[in-house]
Write a structure and sequence with these properties.
Shape: elongated
Low-confidence stretches: none
Number of strands: 0
Number of helices: 2
Helix content: over 70%
Structural class: mainly alpha
Length: 51
């Protein structure tokens, strides 16, 4: 699975969690943003490592 397939799945899970437990909204958004940021930076991080 690449990051393109993972992001919609994460968004779906986050949406369901927000509907079930609205108090989790801040945590779900924070976790989602962290995961999207990591998946966006991952190719750049691997490209800078020299073996």
């Amino acid at each position: 699975m690449n990051s393109i397939a993972i992001q919609p799945l994460i968004a779906l899970i986050a949406g369901i969690l927000i509907l079930v437990m609205p108090r989790l909204l801040n945590y779900v958004i924070a976790i989602y943003l962290i995961i999207v940021g990591i998946t966006g930076l991952w190719p750049d991080l691997l490209g800078s490592v020299k073996l």
